[in-house]
Write a structure and sequence with these properties.
This protein is α/β, with parallel strands linked by helices and about 475 residues long. It has 16 helices and 18 strands. One of its GO terms (molecular function) is ATP binding.
Amino acid sequence: MKLRDYQQSAVSNIGVAFKTNKRALFVLPTGGGKTTIFSQVAADAVNDGESVLVLAHRRELIDQANERLKRFGLETGLVISGEEMTPDAPVQVASIQTLTRRFEKVGKPDLIIVDEAHRAVADSYARVLEEYPDARVLGLTATPCRLDGKGLKGSFSTIVEGPSIEDLISRGYLMRPIAYSASIPDLTGVKTRAGDYAADQLAEALERSTICGDAVSSYQRITPGRSGIAFCVSVKHAGLTADAFNAAGIQAEVLTGDTPKDERAGILARLRSGETKIVASIETLTEGFDFEGLEVVLLMRPTKSLALYLQMVGRVLRISDGKDEAIVLDLSGNTLRHGLVEEIREWSLDGVKDDQNARATNGDTLKTRLCKMCFGVHKAAPVCPLCGHTHEKDDRIPVAKAGELRRIKAEELEAAKRALSDRKKQEERECRSLEDFVKLGKSRGYKFASGWAAKRWELRQSRVRATSYSGWPK
């Protein structure tokens, strides 16, 4: 199988990294061909007389890896519940859940390949790496951080980066997404847990909002008849979304992590054939789902996780015959929160910087603008490249009405942060006591609201003392 030039360079760079490191992490955007790259690395290892163990956490990823490895002429065995093992095969493709129960049946590998390696910090993966301490480890991911933004330094010792999303778009390997967005939804009272919005509180907030109806009207107006995935926050939320589309005469189905295998296959087959237009997904399809013909993603769930945001949008970026656009309908403010997916981001084993993972909550400057004419999002520029509209100097984000999505651009993201920052400052100015600050901290979901409140109150008191000082007595 012939590799693209950047894929061949990746294989070479991984080899160089292994000369001085036992554990290397390779980063490549969704759609760049990570499976092809690690298949070539595995083939090279087998040609050198080595054994290889490929790890994944879902059946779809296991089947995808197994199929690709065979296309490289490799003999493989499966380590997964319900499948007969082939222990003599030089390449074993294993379910991480099954492998931890069958260590004694699997020979010690010389090379371990971890697909979706941002999950490598989980206890199950740690057990595998501890079981085979002498093996070299190659991890591959589009988002080299945990969903909470923390890094992977504990699992890998060096990072090898492939081309960025912008690079692959410029070279014609991925499509440039066109994002439409509204203002950031009001999530007052929704707390943060493990680095992201608390799922139960977020679900409650969205289930009583107009977001499902807004999704339908936006889809009908902007992308009628196109195949899409709606990423939802709960099973109920996904059901409400599918119901809203079906009520409008648009065939929609729900897919969750608990959907039986055969039923799941049928749903995805109908999506690919065009019989089903929208699949409302919860806890699935963000990883390892390849459908080049997918034309739309609907971001129905807000997230503070840059990794999750990039994984969701990455589903729509692949090139396909007859596909002329990759559309992002963002009803959750994620594009305003994190920026355009093609922005250049700095990755390291320490994780993402705060300004990359939660820029909508700290007032940092963004590099995109929301066009008031076509409602599209683009990189900061005086003229919208999508419709030709010349922007006014006023860079405030238009207030989104129910059902109205706008195309996102960059200064609006900056304006959204400033507006949020101004609102937070105003809320703090209105606090008149320590108790007021404690209540405010709790309403924002701060884990240590009392400590934060004490510091803010101490700062307030110091300012009061400073402004009341009138100089030395005469």
